[in-house]
Amino acid sequence: MLASIISVIYNIFLAYTQGMGFVYIYSSGEFLRNLITFLFIIFLIKFNLIGIVYSYLISSIIVSIIFVIISIKKSPYVFSQKIKIEIPFLKELFVYSIPIFLSGFGGIIISSTIFIEFKKMDVHDETEALELARHV
Question: What are the b/e assignments for 108-123, b being 16+ CB within 10 Å?
Fold first, then answer.
């Protein structure tokens, strides 16, 4: 659960830096996260798999904090504004998002159906699935 929250924060601020035109910060995000992950793996490898998991979690937390700090320092006017919630805007946003929700839901249904069918056919890897698809 914590990893999901940290991942959402990281991706929001990564998208924010891209959207605001801070390309050099955006492009260094994954490199920085991978570098920090690698450094923590070196120190935590003695804990086997749990050390690697903690390395990914710690690096995501650190990079998320760095992105939040950089975003606030680079554009303080965005974070100092009062938030106004306007009902007509929310309605328009909701109407716009309905097709996105439906397509996401459809994707889940399709991938679940494919997964269930592969389980029924006793397919264990994608090579077997491709062979079956060629003969259909």
Answer: eeeeeeeeeebeeeeb
